[in-house]
Specification:
Largest sheet: 9 strands, mixed
Distance between the termini: 86 Å
Shape: extended
Helix content: 25-40%
Number of strands: 46
Strand content: 25-35%
Amino acid sequence: MATSWRLLLHRSLPSTRGCHVLVGQSPPHRCVRPLSRLARPSSPSWRHFAAADRHRLVPRSLSPSPALPSSSRRVSVRATADASSDGATQATVEAPPPPPAAAAAVDPSVSGSALRRKFLDFYAARHHAVLPSASLVPDDPTVLLTIAGMLPFKPVFLGQVPPSVPRATTSQRCVRTNDVENVGRTARHHTFFEMLGNFSFGDYFKQEACQWAWQLATQEFGIPAERIWISVFREDDEAYSIWTDQVGVAPERIQRLGEDDNFWASGATGPCGPCSELYYDFHPERGLEGADLGDDTRFIEFYNLVFMESNRRDDGSLEPLHKKNIDTGLGLERLAQILQQVPSNYETDLIFPIIQRAAQLAGVDYHSSDERTKRMLKVIGDHARAVVHLVADGVNPSNIGRGYVVRRLVRRLVRMGRLLGINAGGSSSEGGNGNGSAAGASGSAFLPVIAQQVIAMSADINSGVAVRAERIVEELRREEERFTATLERGEKLLDDLLDHALAAAAGAGGATHGAAADGAGAEGQGEAASGPVLSGRDVFVLYDTFGFPVEITEEVARERGVAVDLEGFEREMAAQRRQSQAAHSAIKLAVGSVAADLAGQLPETEFVGYTCLASSSPVLALVGQGKVVERAAVGQEVDVVLARTPFYAEGGGQIGDWGHMRVAQGEGGAQAGGGVVRVRDVQRAGGGLWLHRGVVEEGEVCVGDEVEAVVDEEQRLRSQAHHTATHLLQSALRAVLGPDVAQAGSLVAFDRLRFDFHFPRALAPAEVAQVEAMVNAWIAQGAAVTATVMPIDDAKAAGAIAMFGEKYGDEVRVIDVPGISMELCGGTHVGNTAAIRAFKVLSEAGIAAGVRRMEAVAGAAAVELLNQWDGVLKTLSSSLKVKAEEVPSRVAALQDELRAARTEADSLRGELAVARAQLLLGEAVSVGEMGCRLLVAELPGVTADALKTAAESLSARLAAADASPSAVVLASGSEDEGKVAIVAVLSPEVVKAGVNAGKLVGAMARVCGGGGGGRPNFAQAGGRQPEKLQEALALGRGELVKQLGA
């Protein structure tokens, strides 16, 4: 357990004067530190404070009262010598912890509300219009939520709209969720925060902004000047000069930083410019030398001044803004932390009352809790503010966009509450020890209790929160209850996953459950575990989809003797974070679809397609171009939601049905606005909705219309044949290759089937033929195919196997081909194997390590394929003027004739090259003392083999002419083909002189973008840039002349 401690220089206790006193929870801890290394506070009104290893100044009013109980004032002091600190005295102080106490009252002059008001009043006195906070739902389509104080003014900064006032100041509510996992883990990460800002729209600029920021910080808020550091953009000499010459900041407390730190942008596009930041120094005693403003144990950036000069376009280029503007941001929570002198933003009066309320519900004391409990309380304090203000601004929980942000935050809130032991209804369980159940107890939700605390604190932030209080509380209550039901489903899924892990380990002859239990949860390494293991992916699904806490998953798994792959889980989480941060300006946690949002409003679609291919139904909803619409006209693509449907929706590897919908006719003829929708896909959305995707071909379709939905019977028969054939294929593979064959994926389409399975090697042709023959034999048997719904336990007991990727409830549908196949499956199938007609394997190949893929056709698709092949064979037979059975031998004979013709052509090309090369003999020159005959030339339009023959012939002719040494280099290039060939043939004397043919042609080939080499006396090379061939020849000629001597 981590323990939170406070170190205090307690002048009120004579026995501890000059010592470090640890005040915390039992057991007592020791702190040994050289007293000479601690800087005394510069003002008697401040006391030294530190949390863990961090030292801060604490107002006297916030320090523990001197009138401590006698048990808390008993201390023992032991002095020792420390050689490493030149004999400085060390004090070791032990003290028992005080009982849990309520938080000290905050000085009203530094309360969050007072600081907000002081900021706004300061700039109002300087002719700034005080504007209210804009909604958390921005007008800007490039971002999901209001992420910065300047966002409402972005059109003004871009010059798109004129400013209504030249100067403004606001306290803007903001929400950011890109670092949601860090909330509660650091002192300053939040989802909801307030950004105080002053803005100039082409009015004042850098000088006034810097001077006023300094006056506000040092005079209005009373921050000591020596505790403020400044950063400026490395190229912004103007700002540096203002801070040093006009404001009077010491140069040693100003740092120039790069673009990553001090060039501000609202996102990938939009307003931007250099900025200057004010930092508060918690530890001035550490000195000036080597100070790093990025060290958050010493510094906190609290005021950012953006000198907005440019706009970044989509292509990344910058364009000047019409007018230079000022955009500043001062984090209210950070300012409160500084002035209220508390360890983190969470312990300011802006958040801590919410934390206290949650701690009360959990039956714990925040200050004496361990770090894990504190972290969960901080998450509740932060997220509660975010969801209350988002709902107040009209963002309700859903599976899309902003609504999904709310849903995710609510789920995190509920998880933390359950882990703290807060039961539904706001009471604690198990003493509130932070180890509560994930699901909690039945009854009313606890979020309304927390929400009411947030609402009570929101009067000065947004008056609309109190006005909408009833709706906020009710919406959060409903969402918590929905999520509690989801958690219960997660518990069921966890049980199923653990059953599967145990069964898989037992089937593989794994270690005993008891052995696994001893190590489960301790290591959590899926790769290292020898017994049953719950995969990281499964843990992630439980966490992400069902909100199931990892700690609870570990605990339950440990009880069942199953290890947990925590490393795999962290990999999945890392992947999700990357996707989240890249999704939408680093704000959206995830984005669903409009259809998914409808799932919470509409009843589940009733599927009647097992027994009929046509049915009537009212249109419940239409989705077009990403939004809900009331009607769709000719040519428009639309998703149609029906109350009931005969269309099969994609699932279990089977694609969705095709067909059409026709608006039913009334008594007076066609229904008003009636039309036809051609359906080309059907997908399942969340909540059991079927989405029929198609195009309006006639008239129009409207919400509320009664339509006749008709499945394309021919395409349904094709998918049925392929689906049943897939079941037969799996049985055949298990029969031929062994029972270890396991499905890894599948596709059931109208034109083919695909089956992926785990197997360590390629199948032999004979094995493929045996599998195919077995499936066709079962088809010929005409075996009945039955579908039966039964309890899943009965299905498992009967030996049914599950299809890949499917999730099953208590009742399952079993497809049985007696004596051949029995599988759990929700797809559509033939009634008798004879209806499949034929089965033909198209291919078998590996797609990953240990995973094979077989593709095949069945039914009408198989017949069509055989007819196609028959047509090809007949065409070949007619063209070759032979019988069909003689086509293979005739093709083999033609291939032999072609090979012979190519050989003869190569020979003729070589002879031609030799003949053309003879014409080059006159170009040979003598070089060097040995009188070497040197020939470097181009022979156009010659293949590499012919070039070799020509070079060897020339070398022999030169040697025979006068018995002199020779060096022959020939090259050929083809710009049409983009190829270069180079050949070098050297006589033995030339090689002895130090010339190497391989190195020579390699250097020449590199000039032409290629390479090559060979023996010292003979080498070949190639290239891809024939346009540089002359340059390469010149290089070769020069190198030979240089080595052989002029």
